[in-house]
Amino acid sequence: MVERGNTGEYLSSVAGGETVHAFVPAPLPPEPPLRFTPERRRLLERATLALGRLDSITLLLPDPEIFLYSYVRREAVLSSQIEGTQSSLSDLLQFELSEAPGVPFDDVVEVSNYVLALEHGLSRLADGLPLCNRLLREMHEVLLSRGRGSGKRPGEFRRSQNWIGGTRPGNAFFVPPPPQVVESCMADLERFIHDSEQPYPTLVKAALAHVQFETIHPFLDGNGRLGRLLISFMLHDEGMLSRPLLYLSLYFKTHRQAYYERLNQVRTRGEWEEWIDFFLEGVEQTALDAVETARRLVALMRRDEQRIHGLGRRAGTALRVHRTLCHRPLQSIKEMASELELSYPAVSKSLLALAELDVVHEITGRQRNRIYAYQTFIDVLNEGAQPP
User: Fold this and answer.
1) Who contacts 281 (Cβ-Cβ below 8 Å, separation ≥6)?
2) Kind of pairing, strands 330-332 and 371-373?
3) Is residue 199 reached through a cis peptide bond, with omega within 30 degrees of 0 on the bond before it?
4) What is the DSSP string of 112-174?
5) Low-confidence residues of the chain, pLDDT below 50?
6) What residues form DSSP beta bridges with 373?
7) Is 265 exposed, middle or buried (0-12, 13-18, 19+ CB in 10 A)?
8) What pLDDT, on the 0 to 100 scale, is given for residue 309?
9) Do residues 181 and 22 touch, judged by C-beta distance below 8 A?
10) Can you tell me the distance from the alpha carbon of 215 to that of 175, in angstroms, rounded to the nearest whole number?
11) Distance (Å, whole) CA 73 – CA 63
12) In three state form, how does the secondary structure of 62-73 look?
């Protein structure tokens, strides 16, 4: 273990009428440099290999979008659950259907905003904007555009002192930097992200940047969700992932206590290496789990396709309906008819045939505006993503 002590300094700040000691992290990279033991190098190699398998996931799938649409939404649900929302994947998929009223608004809109923020960030990177503070602020603005948090300065670095845990600032678990230094701390982080002279591989840089972002806590709300997205975006931006498909929310949620302890031990004792080990184990586990989920979805789709072929003359349209449900596993008849350019009765008839095979289930119980779910597909994605 490298003895570093505090990895920053404390400044006096005022929050809620109380004077508190706010922690200002030293700029990255850590000093003294990280130690890479043979065990840590093996961890890095295994995590990098697993990430390569994750990146080639598209070769497994007949169409990469089949996995991406639902997997991104699963991550949105998990990342928001860490912040206390109660939404499920089915809630989100229903919310995105204009014909499905009645889903609890506050929780599910937060999850929907996460998807929109991720998509906005990808679009801006594709347009040539670098991974920078401007992009993070734009994504934050989308993240907090509706629902809870929309009054907490979306898209702006905070101008007041915040704190984490505790009932008041004086007994907080952690107090991030005072507002007057947030801008300079974030400028330092941006420089580190783009410093090509750094000796550390991309995975390690992403691990370091995540801790630094969470320590700075630059926004009044949404820091956890954006900090987790930063990991994926760094790996995507550096070319390790052709799409930002590594989402560590389930790992952080499952090991929540260890996650917070590791972050705190970096700040108070400089235990960067222990954090790196925890992070790399999470990358390996998460990447391999994602590959396995994709394999299971492919096996499920192929099994159901074979059963649909047994429908004889009705199979052609039913296969097309099944395929569109692989892309979006919860849809209305009207939506599917429009997307497939088929008549409403033709789609309805195919769905009834698929329901007889137990491939789909109607979830509203209504006679009109019926919504069908590819429930076994959703169930595979849902493992570990149920509300707490």
Assistant:
1) 43, 47
2) antiparallel
3) no
4) HHHHHHHHHHHHHHHTT--SSHHHHHHHHHHHTSSSTTTTS-TTS--SS---BSSSSGGG-SB
5) 99-100
6) 330, 361
7) middle
8) 95
9) no
10) 9
11) 17
12) CCHHHHHHHHHH
**Amino acid identity, residue 333?**
I
Q: Which residues, in sequence order, are bridge partners of residue 372?
A: 331, 362
Q: How far apart are CA 75 and CA 374, in angstroms?
A: 19
Domains and CATH numbers, the chain: 8-292 (1.10.3290.10), 311-382 (1.10.10.10)
* The three-state (H, E, C) secondary structure of 251-298, written as one string: HHHHCHHHHHHHHHHHHHHCCHHHHHHHHHHHHHHHHHHHHHHHHHHH
Packed helices 105-126 and 223-237: angle between N→C axes, nearest 10 degrees: 30
Give residues with Cβ within 8 angstroms of 45, minimum separation 6.
none
User: What is the model's pLDDT at position 333?
Assistant: 93
End-to-end CA distance of the chain: 35
Size (the chain), residues: 388
The radius of gyration of the chain from alpha carbons, rounded to an integer in Å, stands at 23
- pTM for this prediction: 0.92
Tokens 């979306």: give the residue: 154
Between helices 315-327 and 344-356, what is the axis angle to 10°?
90
Question: Rounded to 5 degrees, what are φ and ψ at 371?
Answer: -125, 135
133-143 and 179-194 are packed helices; what angle lies between their axes, rounded to 10 degrees? 120
Rounded Cα distance between 318 and 376, Å, is 17
Contact predicate 251/47, CB 8 Å: no
pLDDT for res 99: 47
Q: Strand, coil or helix: what is 10?
A: strand
pLDDT of residue 301: 94
Query: Packing angle between helix 105-126 and helix 133-143, nearest 10 degrees?
Result: 150
pLDDT digits 0-9 by tens, 99-133? 445 555 667 888 889 989 999 999 999 999 999 99
